[in-house]
Amino acid sequence: MTQCPCNSGQEFDACCGALLKGGEAPTPEALMRARFTAFVSGDIAFLERTMAGEAMADFDRPAVEKAMQGVEGLGVDIRASSGGGAEEAEGMVEYVARFKSHGKPVAHHERAVFKRENGVWLYVDGEINPKGPPRQVEKVGRNDPCPCGSGKKFKKCCGA
């Protein structure tokens, strides 16, 4: 038995292997992991089969086939996911797919959107290298209470 290339910790046949052989993905995350495994194993038919109609318009088969050559999968790190429940029709998975392409390490960061059509999860679109909202930092004035909770003024405590 071999470990699944998606780095789920499961055996290939119990994880992505069942989906690549025609099984249905129970969640968007499972489909995304199987799509990674299909990419690193050269299964372009699975990638095409699991795309929604609107995604197929942008699919460049020759470019994907070329990108698949010389690829070695290193796994997938899930950053966030939402939706995709039993009663939901949409889901999102933010992930970083790691692999080597011709010996060089590559990290593909994407926020992927999925939808369920006739009970089947399909890839719709993705945002490459997504950025989160900008962080808001409040400026502490010299005479404001210190944010550390000491009860002293900022200038006499952490601002000194």
How is this fold's topology laid out?
Elements (H helix, E strand, L loop, with lengths): L15 H5 L7 H14 L2 H6 L3 H4 L4 H8 L2 E13 L6 E12 L2 E14 L2 E9 L32
Write structural notes for this entry.
The protein has 160 residues and is α+β, with helices and mostly antiparallel strands. Helix content is 23%, strand content 30%. The chain has 5 helices and 4 strands; from the N terminus they run αααααββββ. The chain has helices spanning 16-20, 28-41, 44-49, 53-56, 61-68, and strands at residues 71-83, 90-101, 104-117, 120-128. It has a 4-stranded antiparallel β-sheet with strand order 1-2-3-4. The chain is elongated, with a radius of gyration of 22 Å. The model has no long low-confidence stretch (mean pLDDT 93).
Shape: elongated
Q: Give the count of helical stretches.
A: 5
Mean of residue pLDDT values? 93
State the total count of DSSP E strands: 4
Cα-atom Rg, whole angstroms? 22 Å
Q: Which stretches are low in confidence, meaning pLDDT under 50 for 5 or more residues running?
A: none
Beta-strand portion reads 25-35%
Q: What series of H and E elements makes up the topology?
A: HHHHHEEEE
Give the structural class: alpha+beta
Largest sheet: 4 strands, antiparallel
Task: Name the strands of the widest sheet in spatial order.
Answer: 1-2-3-4
Helix content bin: 10-25%
Report how far apart the termini are.
Answer: 61 Å
Summarize the structure.
The chain is an alpha+beta fold and 160 residues long. It has five helices and four strands.
